[in-house]
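Re: Re: ligand-bound prediction request (bumping)

Still looking for help on this. To restate: I need the protein modeled with beta-D-glucopyranose bound, output as structure tokens. Inputs repeated here so nobody has to scroll up.
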Amino acid sequence: MWLPVRRARFLGTLIFAFRPALWSRRACALLPLALWAGSLSMLGQAVPGQAVAPATTVTQTRSSPTGIADPRLNARVESLLHSMTLDEKIGQLVQYSAGQATGPGTGRTDYEDMIAKGQIGALLNVVDTPLINKYQRIAVEKSRLHIPLLFGLDVIHGYRTEFPIPLGMASTWDPSLVEKASHVAALEASAIGIRWTFSPMVDIARDARWGRIQEGAGEDSYLGSAMAAAYVRGYQGPHLDAPDSIAACAKHFVGYGAAEAGRDYNTTEISEHTLREFYLPPFHAAVNAGAATLMSAFNSLNGVPASANSFTLTQVLRKEWGFEGLVVSDWSSIGELVAHGIAADDATAARKALLAGVDMDMASSLYHDHLAQLVASGAVPEANIDESVRRVLRVKFALGLFEHPYADERHAQQAFFLPESLQLAQTIAERSFVLLNNTPGAAGKPLLPISKDVKTVAVIGPLADNPSDPEGLAVSSEPKSGALSFPAELARRLGESNVLRSTGVGVLKGSDEGIAAAVATAKRADLAILTLGESPAMSGEAASRSNLGLPGRQQELLEAVINTGKPVVLILFSGRPLTVPWAFEHVPAVLAAWLPGTEAGPALARTLFGECNPSGKLVLSWPRSVGQEPLYYNALSTGRPPGNADLTRPAIDANSKYVSRYLDEQNTPQFPFGYGGSYTTFAYGPTAISPVQLSAGELNQGLSGKAGTRELLTADAMVSNTGSRAGDEFVQLYVRLQGTSTAQPVRALKGFQRVALAPGETKKVTFHLTPDSFAIWNDRNQFAVEPAKVTVWIAPDSVSGSEAKFEILP
Ligand code: BGC
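Reply:
Sorry for the wait, this slipped through. Here it is.
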């Protein structure tokens, strides 16, 4: 449940009137000086047009020893654990929401008393710093063992400075930007006393009906892994105990994004093969990047709910990956084991969750209510409780909470809306936009960037700005940040009288009169800019949709404005791809803007006027119709693929009857994964690979975790800017393996790089592939490289590019 973050900001503004100073001496000394300076220099690199390091590999290295894996923590953890009573141990495993409830509540309100008795280990949703400090003071000064509380919150895409939603951030294809944004989020959230964010959501999502697709990095596990690691690095920084670091929480472990029919909280069925190759890798990347915590999911996975699933929580996470941090349940997901039907009562639910590997109970209160009795009866060994307590204490020690438990109320505001943070939010918003259509209009020129001849624009639609709706702030701007809304930004450029406004219709409702007024407004302008789509509340948790078209009467509005004959630019705001085939056919310029955050206004205006050139690329396959869902590019080939998906035989006629297809819809997406337009054009030369033969044995020696050569294969292609503007291109590398023991995707992303090209410029783009690029989950249930015929593409998206072949010999 993440919506309260935005609402919390308003509370946040109130609390700074009261400022009892409580930050520890160490933090106070650091905060205004080195800490901020360091943070700012990090952010300072993210200026428009400046090169960002290419991202071709997903980090596999563990975090620095100052994180949760630091062996120096062991002695402290053990010594404290030995002084704890059973009740105090259980207290560390208990978390409640002491702010706005973000799910079915527990009904408890006696937190102060419980904290004093050591019965609570963590709180969430408290955003009032004096209250945070008040609770903390009770824990530190009144509880017998003085163990500090851990305060958590859903800080999903920034705290006060809002970045685009994670789907938008992923559309930048730039993990270094995501890392910087997460660092800003950590800076702002830690300033008010939040040291734990329930982010990143690293669930692979292949179905746009699922509302939470907006909270993740899309459908691909390679890109998702790169983003997962970047979030963790940004939140946690090089030292988890720095006052501006917050613990990351990779969620929702695991399979939540595969909810059947895209309906939130629904059942998932995922084969081990699919789990290992697609759903688990982003979590593994987060763990390898040092994530301090993970969250167990709501869904049942192959019949066993994820919050009681010992295969995923213990076998994979602890035994195979060596994860040493803590696992928190999702909101009341332990209590929900009863509704799932795998526990006949609450006590059994608590037992099953704990024994499976869930260390902390978020909000269901079942650990508090039942663990002591379960230990007394022998149903739960105390050793299991001890193990979970160790993990909680480890995170608290690693965060330095024992040394600096309090937030500095005097300095908290200094962290908000720093100029560098806002600049970064603008840069990321600009790079998150995906140009879907920009076809030449009647004058033979694309509509975008907007020509200097355009003097008057009509801004039409419900989503241009929406200051009265707090949720609308994700679309327009946060007043406190000082950023102008999109229409205000246009007015600043064109003059107030040249920006005509008409809402036309609401997001969900509208009238004939409203549409008529919008048409009249469009007729008075040189260009109409339509701002249509979903309000922020239409995606996210508990916001699944079965229709993915424009809601309400927006389609009618769009058609009416197009019928005026005026040139139209459509900005689509949404937390998912929308099925609007009519728009893609009739509107010459369409920009997917997602929900761009605080700097939406300037970022959109700069993009439309060509001061920056769109470089965002889709991180999901954009469907033509909802019936295609789940739709994803890296599907396994069927035995009867229409077209030439086989690659080794002649293409099968796409219209023949007995092939895998619909009678009434194409198989292909409206826009493929990886696609995104630009104001310039790029051309790709042939893909070259060296060497053209490798041995499976040699590759297996070099798999991560083993000694051996890491980079064994080089692939390159010349990429040219064939247009007249400078532009950035995200060059992608895909592979396909044929002849392996398990079927493999028709294409799988294995590398990507950003290349900045001046008009007419050509650069050689080189990828160095490691053996991991060719490892598969095989029919013996292990990762290995197998002999195969391999096709490699260096491409602008997941359906084009020139191919090269090589062979992996036995
Ligand atoms: C969501 C989690 C979130 C938690 C706390 C749950 O409903 O699924 O993603 O972290 O609430 O707000």
